[in-house]
Design brief:
419 residues; two-stranded antiparallel sheet; 19 helices; 1% strand; disordered N terminus
């Protein structure tokens, strides 16, 4: 329906309502005063009444007319406010319809270094300020930070426009590195939590030069995953997860036989799923498993893949009935796995790389607790405590391991008393 028609319809309804009210009051007045009065005068929207008629009214009639005028003005003011709000809402909807479908195009332009003007959300501006404050040696924001902050459109995106340079290196004195040296340095930096941000910035500084190199692209997607892990703000996490997933999609399209591309695309799908409803969460879970299986085929000696597969199996084994039913509706089959399957994957990661991670030991302990193999659970809890805590996830895992040990002590003491 055209907007003008909407206005006319609403206006007609409001005028009709006012007219009915006036008619009722007129009838009551006629019964009281027995005074004849012309009905059409009550339906007039003019701000004044016929002066001759008003002079013949009683004081009570003058008061009633003043109330009618006041009510009419209030109705018109409310109507005007309603129409104004409808216009604003219509504009917001139009803007969202235009921008959201262009997300993929925005990200492609980011990767190609073409974006110069973006719409940027308040949360992303706040993130840029924090990064600048942390990096005291920085003289300007990285181009990827600036571009991706504007390129990612969320439901909370405002209508401000802000221009950013096509490429501004975070560290203006960063030396230009050859690809192999750059990749080695980026891999080495991310071995520590503080180094992950530096690795991300290093890749941002060189994206113009190496954007077509697949070994660079999948590492760039991985770096967005690292930033997801480092971020505490929910909007920042959504931002990094969505940008990284889109870059990951480009990577698997360009190099479908590269296992690392599938690995990090799967990981980023998992991150994105954390902010979705049940249906999309299951959809991303299906996508996660699909690309994880491909990555295992292409990288059979990568322990991280078996750890992730173990996590998937363990999560599926704990799915509720409604979650399984929803998955069956979407994909025609119920995802199924067991704690035993999860255990096999965690053991495989440990076999390939003994002492692989504190998290892997924690999940081994949890699997053995579920299988009621308490001695094995105790063994892996103690192995977990021998490993250093490097990341925030390591610290959280260590806390959970200590809770498992406390629970096992009670069980083992009870079993010892009954022997």
């Amino acid at each position: 329906m055209p907007h003008s028609t909407n206005k006319e319809l609403i206006f007609a309804i409001m005028v009709g309502t006012a007219g009915i009210s006036l008619l009722v009051l007129w009838y009551q007045k006629v019964r009281k005063s027995r005074t004849a009065m012309s009905l059409p005068k009550f339906f007039s929207l003019n701000s004044t009444f016929d002066s001759t008629t008003l002079q013949d009214k009683t004081h009570n009639g003058q008061g009633t007319s003043a109330v009618f005028q006041k009510r009419q003005l209030q109705i018109l003011e409310k109507l005007n406010e309603l129409l104004k709000n409808m216009e604003e809402l219509k504009e917001e909807i139009r803007f969202l319809k235009e921008t959201i479908p262009k997300l993929e195009e925005y990200i492609q332009d980011e990767l190609d270094g073409k974006i110069t003007v973006h719409r940027i959300s308040p949360q992303h501006r706040a993130r840029k300020r924090r990064v600048t404050a942390v990096q005291s040696s920085a003289t300007s924001n990285s181009s990827e930070e600036a571009e991706s902050e504007g390129g990612y459109i969320t439901a909370n995106t405002d209508t401000e426009e802000q221009s950013f340079p096509v490429h501004t290196a975070l560290n203006t004195h960063t030396e230009e590195l050859k690809l192999d040296i750059l990749l080695q340095k980026a891999d080495h930096l991310r071995m520590t939590e503080s180094g992950k941000m530096e690795s991300f910035e290093l890749l941002c500084d060189h994206k113009e030069k190496f954007r077509d190199e697949i070994e660079f692209v999948w590492r760039f997607a991985r770096a967005y995953g690292d930033m997801f892990e480092l971020s505490a703000n929910t909007q920042d996490k959504k931002h990094y997860a969505n940008i990284g997933k889109t870059i990951g999609e480009k990577a698997i399209t360009r190099a479908p036989m590269n296992g690392h591309c599938h690995l990090w695309y799967a990981v980023l799908c998992g991150y994105v799923s954390q902010f979705e409803g049940l249906q999309n969460k299951i959809n991303y879970g299906h996508r996660f498993k699909e690309h994880l299986d491909i990555a295992i085929q292409l990288l059979p000696e990568e322990p991280f893949l078996y750890y992730l597969n173990g996590r998937y199996c363990y999560t599926v084994s704990k799915l509720s009935w409604i979650e399984k039913k929803m998955a069956a509706t979407l994909f025609g089959k119920v995802p199924s796995s067991t704690v035993q399957e999860a255990l096999c994957n965690f053991l495989k990661a440990e076999e390939i790389h003994p002492g692989y991670s504190l998290l892997n030991y924690m999940y081994l302990a949890k699997c053995y607790v579920d299988l009621e193999e308490n001695q094995n659970a105790w063994k892996f809890c103690n192995l977990a405590l021998l490993l250093p805590t490097v990341t925030k996830e390591d610290k959280e895992a260590q806390t959970e391991v200590k809770a498992i040990i406390k629970s096992l002590k009670r069980v083992l003491d009870f079993e010892g008393d009954n022997i």
